[in-house]
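Minimal example, chain plus magnesium ion.
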Amino acid sequence: MDTLPVASGVAAEPLTPAQLRELYSLMVAVRHLDTSAIAWQRQGIIPGYAPELGQEAAQVGSGYAVDTTRDFVFPTYREMGVARTMGVDMVAYMSTHKATWHGGLYDPVESRLAPIQAVVAGSVLHAVGWAHGQTLSGTPDGKLGVAMTYFGDGASSQGDVHEALNFAAVMKAPVVFFVQNNGWAISVPTERQVAGGSVAARAAGYGMPALQIDGDDVVAVVEATRRAFAHARAGNGPVLIEAMTYRRGPHSTSDDPGRYRSLDEERDGAGLDPLERFRQRLVADGIADEAFFAEALAAAKAEEEQIRNGIQALGSRPGTEMFDLVFQETTPALQAQAANWREESEHV
Ligand SMILES: Cc1ncc(C[n+]2csc(CCOP(=O)(O)OP(=O)(O)O)c2C)c(N)n1
Ligand SMILES: [Mg+2]
């Protein structure tokens, strides 16, 4: 499905060979870190993690379209690949999975990535608010900063998503709604949560253009996301992208997919691995060779080791911060809770 008008000023230049290789290197780095994070959880280095195995093309491709000098991204709990592509410090990102700091220790304003959001559909309204702020404040060159918000097929059933889509369209807010339809919301398959089977099809009801794309084709994802950004940046309002992909692993490290799907179903549903698919394409087009792939993997391994060391070295944060940072000015109720907490945990 493609209901996005060809907007003026869309950068139509194809990706260069160097950019294609960069995309591959990013996907390998993300794959390696993602699979390692599951091992870290099993080894007791981190208590929990939400893997994105199979969603590397959707995440790297969409994150690649972001202009970190003026856009802002609102992730869920599964966007490690987006964060890595945007250049976020990965020790700071992973700190949330070590339970050191809720939402990650990175600076959202500097990195342009909002804190990791565990509330399903929790970030979509934030994105609309931020984007409307762009419209209200305007920019000297007339080109708006764009908010990109991520959510899943399951989240699309939440009331917040309806409100966000409706308000964004009514206010022509510069938002890209990036849905990763990975086939599952924990144990519930898409057909049991999205009537009609397509989140993109709903956009028409909000008066919003939509693109339903092959989310396992990284080049298609970059191109679609760039088009959506150009449309929103020029003041034409929001766009919804539904990237069709597949969650190859468990929902999280505490999930056992064997309880609701068979290995045969996994194999059939997943199709060809997006990383392997891209590798084959680069070889067929003469853009990369075995030496390049080996180098990319070695770099990913070195990076993972550095991040693991960083995570292991992270100390804990003072517990009182959970009370200090709720509101700018504290309230009597919070003060009372903080006093109780200190009494119980610090015996003061
Ligand atoms: C408001 C809210 N309801 C329920 C949950 C529990 N929960 C966590 S993830 C999830 C499923 C989300 O599925 P989807 O939106 O498809 O995203 P995916 O996990 O597949 O990336 C649920 C129900 C939650 N975190 N927040
Ligand atoms: Mg899902």
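The chain has a mean pLDDT of 94. The CA atoms of residues 262 and 268 lie 10 Å apart.
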